[in-house]
Specification:
The protein is mostly helical. It contains seven helices and no strands. It is elongated and about 55 Å long.
Length: about 150
């Protein structure tokens, strides 16, 4: 069975960092730190989900995978939308990612395979969050967090 509260708790780090990545402006020297934090948001959510559910490793992996795939779906869809529409506010983490993709992709590839590149970015970010969260949940150990009322 799934513990839906655990999955929702595992969504807290990815959702909060995705919201911060879309809304907080960062200067160029700090943009790399923001991108690194966004990349580590999926495994952080998986670690939270795995720690909170406890029990067998398979249960932790399933909860981390579910939490990471939901967070990754949010990241992948918003990242794809902001790159496609150029809708990210200037100097946010999403804008810096869009800037890196736009300046490093050769024009011939953009013309021929633009939508495939865009879809690949969305799918790759979703898979990264899901797999990173599953691995982090498996590594979280067999701990059960007891909350006293």
């Amino acid at each position: 069975m799934f513990d839906y509260e655990t999955v929702c708790l595992g969504l807290v780090p990815p959702v909060s960092l995705v919201l911060a990545a879309v809304s907080i402006r960062l200067p160029f020297p700090v943009s790399h730190v923001g991108i690194a934090l966004l990349i580590l948001a999926g495994p952080a959510g998986g670690y939270v989900a795995g720690t909170m559910v406890g029990g067998a490793r398979l249960s932790r992996v399933v909860h981390g995978l579910l939490s990471g795939s939901l967070g990754g779906l949010l990241l992948g869809s918003t990242l794809t939308y902001t790159i496609y529409e150029s809708a990210a506010p200037r100097h946010t983490v999403y804008w810096w990612i869009h800037h890196a993709v736009a300046t490093n992709t050769p024009p011939d590839i953009v013309v021929a395979y633009g939508y495939y590149v865009l879809a690949g970015i969305g799918v790759a970010s979703t898979l990264w969050f899901a797999l990173g969260a599953a691995v982090a949940a498996a590594a979280s150990g067999n701990r059960v967090v007891a909350v006293e009322a």
